[in-house]
Each structure stands twice: as structure tokens, then as C-alpha cells.
Amino acid sequence: MASSPVELANLALIQVGEQTINDLEQDADRARAINVLYSNSRDAVLAAHNWNEATKRDALAKLTDTPSWGFTGMFQLPPDYLRFVRIEDMRDQFQIEGDKILANLDTINLIYIFRLEDVTRMSPLLEQAIAARLAADIAVTIRGDEGQAERYYKLFVDKLNEARFVDALQGPVHTYGGTTFFDARFVGPTGFADSIFRPIASG
Fold first, then answer.
1. How far apart are CA 7 and CA 14, in angstroms?
2. Which end of the chain is more exposed for a tag (fewer CB within 10 A), N or C?
3. What burial letters (b/e) apply to 15-26, b meaning 16+ CB within 10 Å?
4. What's the predicted TM-score (pTM) here?
């Protein structure tokens, strides 16, 4: 298992046939590319699944500010928030807008995917999925080879699916009820993950 972001980045560099680095601040094109892409690639993979190691819960207190209409309460999402999983009672109506949750509640008990930065807390399969995503991203940035990047993205999807499958075996499958409101809000957005498979445009 990787013990640092540098070790995880080196897994990606090895995949694309590049030399490894000693530091993300190293004076080399490959290190500069990794430094730019690492956080984005990692967060995209974390947001693609309800990873057990990247799941957190928090009790949100209502802010003094209130929505101009539609809801009576406004709640600040946690600073490490990446993606919504559920609130305690999914029968309560709510809306996520920007970095806030709007709801007719006094408190919200939230479960969410957080920005897991500690590599030592990642499972080996999650590490492999992140490394594969990063390899695909740097293949475009360093080599400018979109054909090669496409091959790496296919590998990434395979690694991601394998990691998702094994991770899902680590805990119970949750069902949250089949209300019309729930179906309308949350069945459609499952296509979110499609967007993370596209190459990141290089500046």
C-alpha cells in the first residue's frame, strides 16, 4: 500500500512509462503535471462511489441566514464535502444549492463522501483506481497522446468497477424507500459518474 501522495503518484507514472519522482515539488515536467492533477483526479474517484473509508457523518446546525423562499432553513455543507450520500430521514424534503442544504428542519444529520487525503487510510483497490485515473490524466498532459489516454481510461474504469464491487461487500446495502420525491431527485443523477471518465482539459 502507498504511504504518501508521492508513492501513489509514482504508481501512475510507472503505468505510463515515466520515471518516478521524489517530491511533488520536484523540478521536472512530470512532477509539475502530477502536482496540478493529483487532487482533482483523487477527488473524482472518491466522488464516484460511496467508499466506506471516505464516508463520514455530521450533524448540521441551521444557519441564521434563511432562503428567500421555498424552505425555512439553510445549512452549511462541511468543508471536506465531496458528494451527498443521504440524510437521516430521506422522507424530509431538501435541496442542495451550492455549498448549502435547504430544508424545513432545525438540524440535519448528514452522511456524505469527504475529501480523503490520508493515503494510508485508502484500501489497495481504491489506491489502484486513483492511480489508474491519474495515469489517464497525465497521459494527456505529459505526452499529449489522446489514444493512449483512452486506453488508460478503459483501465481506470475496470479498476474503479473492481474497487466498487469489493468495497460494496464491506457493508450492508442501504435502501431508502421508494417515494416519488426520492426517485425524482436521486435516480436521475446516477449518471454523474459518466462525467469523471472524461479527460481533464489541459490549460
1. 11
2. C
3. bbebeebeeeee
4. 0.80
